[in-house]
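Example S7 (structure tokens).
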């Protein structure tokens, strides 16, 4: 039977590309999302991927949501923690809410999904968790102390959980994307974006499908010896 993979924030951008790719690789794919029903309906219409709405930053909602997925679709063998938001601003302008919301969703979401799905993976002796970090968690970024801290935290979370999962056949890895042409990057003012692209040796933004390919490898049987690693996919912008 096909393994069940859930992609948080799977209805748009990088998440949607990951859903499409994992489905093509033979997984039964479920997408989680926060509130944009139109994007979810579009994904469902285009791909027949089932979509489940809850806030991954909400612990109880995540436990309930994953229980529902397991009951209605099957035990969850693969988790891709992709959901993420930005609330940018320099420290002196950043509110506590901006700090907390990014930590709650971007980093807290990984904890909540792991709490919901890791025990079952461990019991069944197989699992894949892929956490989407960021180049800005590796290198830092002006105006993003919240986002850089949360993404950097994801890389530490990955390495710690990988040590817990290894003897149970559960691998835990991260991908650190560089700048990818999604809605999130479309929100960056054009003059800032032009300066960013000028610093990418490959000379362009990345495509969501290029991140999805990395995720697909980490979720495959072939990647059983890869755990606790971070795959940087960034056009050479930051060599870590
Ligand atoms: P988008 O903004 O295009 O899409 C974000 C997705 O996450 C949407 O499906 C959204 O759902 C969902 N989401 C947001 N908040 C929540 C929540 N609380 N609970 C559940 N789902 C939620 O993002 P990208 O595709 O650009 O980014 C995907 C990931 O990659 C993020 O973690 C981002 O930080 C990371 N990343 C992106 C880079 C880029 O250049 N684009 C670079 C490096 C990292 P809805 O549609 O309902 O709002």
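Recovered sequence:
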């Amino acid at each position: 039977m096909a393994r069940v993979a859930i992609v948080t924030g799977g209805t748009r951008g990088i998440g949607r590309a990951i859903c499409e790719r994992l489905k093509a690789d033979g997984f039964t794919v479920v997408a989680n999302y926060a509130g944009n029903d139109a994007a979810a309906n579009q994904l469902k219409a285009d791909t027949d991927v089932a979509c489940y709405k809850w806030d991954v930053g909400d612990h109880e909602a995540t436990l309930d949501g994953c229980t529902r997925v397991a009951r209605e679709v099957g035990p969850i063998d693969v988790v891709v923690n992709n959901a993420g938001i930005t609330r940018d601003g320099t420290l002196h302008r950043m509110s506590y809410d901006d700090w907390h919301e990014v930590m709650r969703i971007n980093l807290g979401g990984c904890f909540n999904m792991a709490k919901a799905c890791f025990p079952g993976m461990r019991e069944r002796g197989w699992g894949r968790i892929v956490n989407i970090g960021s180049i800005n968690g590796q290198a830092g970024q002006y105006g993003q102390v919240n986002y850089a801290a949360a993404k950097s935290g994801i890389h530490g979370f990955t390495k710690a959980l990988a040590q817990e999962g290894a003897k149970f056949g559960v691998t835990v890895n991260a991908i650190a994307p560089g700048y990818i042409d999604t809605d999130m990057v479309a929100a960056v003012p054009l003059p800032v974006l032009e300066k960013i692209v000028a610093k990418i040796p490959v000379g362009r933004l990345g495509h969501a499908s290029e991140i999805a390919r990395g995720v697909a490898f980490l979720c495959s049987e072939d990647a059983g010896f890869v755990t606790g690693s971070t795959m940087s996919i960034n056009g050479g912008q930051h060599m870590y």
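Notes on this example. The chain is about 50% helix and 15% strand.
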